[in-house]
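sanity check this record:

:::
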Amino acid sequence: MSVYLGKVLELQSVCSQANQSYITIKISSEQEQGTEVLWKIDDITADHLKAIVEQELEPDIVYKYRLSFYSEWDSAKKYYVSYLTRTYCEQSERVYFTCSEQYVHELQMIRNCESLDELKFLTSLLEATENPDSSNVENARSYRRLNRRLIWSATALMSIIILILVGSTVPAFSYKMASGKDDGISPIGSMTKTADSIVELASNSETGTITAVNPQFKAVAEEETTKPVSVAAKPVSELHVQSVELSETVNFNIPKGTVALTFDDGPSKYTEKIADVLKEYQVGGTFFFIGENVEKHPKSVQYVKNHGYSIGSHSMHHLELTKQSKAKQKYEITHPNELIEKLTGEPVVLFAHPMEPRIKLSSIS
């Protein structure tokens, strides 16, 4: 009997030590808040997971990765496939990866076990840190914290540099603002003026004038601040707005009294059955396929094409494109075309936005 009960596996790091690969995961369930363990896995699975985690995405975003218990044998390519879910705030996407039979077997053992102590390939990080000889575990923990330390170190270094620059430029800048001259001002980082020459300025928010505390600069300061300053607003017509001019536009229409049938989010195990029903009743239709599903069901794509139905792209992972970077948007739109064209031998000219209503592209024949 399965005791799965909603277990969640959060991938935290991937590392290797002494020709052995490990991943650090946090296992949570309804019974336990979360247990960090070190999982000894094969190199093939580790390499694919590491490639996903280290993939260059948005530099300022910290993603979370949740391993799925799903796995499937690809008989055509002779390997197992699983996936993890990459999340940030309310956004999430599935990322598939190749894995070994050993990984699949141990994944199911984690899913069905009553106690993690039963699994010899897992080591609790809490228990391992109490053992000074556990160099592998300590290496994994250090690897997981490496990026955080680098970020904090870089931030601290930049803060020190900014403080030094600001601290060295303020005295010379204050003198120049008060006197209106730069005669005798020493280079940044040094001062030759006496203490009597340092001017303290106070801003008057009501009149817009500046008062010089040192009488030596009072007249000069008042003269400079009484000069009218005009700031010309840039005309709206001169603002640059990025735009793209279409060389050719195409509108699709259907006769009055007819409807267009579209089938989104496939291909799936039902795609070929849908095509058979349409063919039986001589009905037209357009299939908008998701790229990651095309990789899972390539035969269904060819089946739809061989039956004469139109095929379009529905993005790679069905993400909300308006919230993605430009590079990510380009990948989501163009990569499914490459996958579909490789299977059908024909260019893909139709695209259905994953979060928007469809344009009617096909009609009943």
